[in-house]
Amino acid sequence: MYAFDGDEQFYVDLDREETVWDLPEFSKVYAFDAQEALPYIDSLKNNLRALIQRYNVTQDPSGGFFLLLPPSGEGEDPCAQCHMAT
């Protein structure tokens, strides 16, 4: 079990390579070996790297994005805003 009633029960700390339980009581009832998950995580990272190279995905160096806002009133046009990260 990963989530219970929308709350995270545990996560795998990739730096320490261990399972971190939000509620220690769950660690007594459930078991999850983080060491078994690490090969899958490495495989996912490699697949992501291959997809990025294949489709030539690059991040926008400016860090900006456009936002199209709905009309604020009847008969008005939508408004486009450009947000730039600084």
Description:
The protein is 33% helix and 26% strand. With 86 residues, it is α+β, with helices and mostly antiparallel strands. The chain has one domain (3-83): Class II Histocompatibility Antigen, M Beta Chain, Chain B, domain 1, CATH 3.10.320. The chain has a two-stranded antiparallel ribbon. Strands 3-4 form a two-stranded antiparallel sheet. Strand 1 and strand 2 (7-8) form a beta hairpin.
Provide tags for this entry.
86 residues; 33% helix; disulfide bond; glycoprotein; Class II Histocompatibility Antigen, M Beta Chain, Chain B, domain 1; 26% strand; alpha+beta; two-stranded antiparallel sheet; 2 helices
Helix % is 25-40%
CATH level 3 topology:
Class II Histocompatibility Antigen, M Beta Chain, Chain B, domain 1
Largest sheet: 2 strands, antiparallel
Q: How are strands sequenced across the largest beta sheet?
A: 1-2
Number of helices: 2
**Name of the CATH class:** Alpha Beta
Q: State the assembly state of the protein chains.
A: single chain
Let me know the average pLDDT. Answer: 72
Beta strand %: 25-35%
Structure class: alpha+beta
How many domains in all?
A: 1
Mind telling me which CATH architecture this is? Roll
The coarse overall form would be flat
Order of helices and strands: EEEEHHEE
Which superfamily, in CATH terms, is the homologous superfamily?
Answer: Class II Histocompatibility Antigen, M Beta Chain, Chain B, domain 1
| Radius of gyration from the alpha-carbon trace, in angstroms | 22 Å
Domain MHC class II alpha chain N-terminal: 1-62
GO cellular component, one term: MHC class II protein complex
Protein name: RT1 class II, locus Ha
InterPro entries: MHC_I/II-like_Ag-recog, MHC_II_a/b_N, MHC_II_a_N
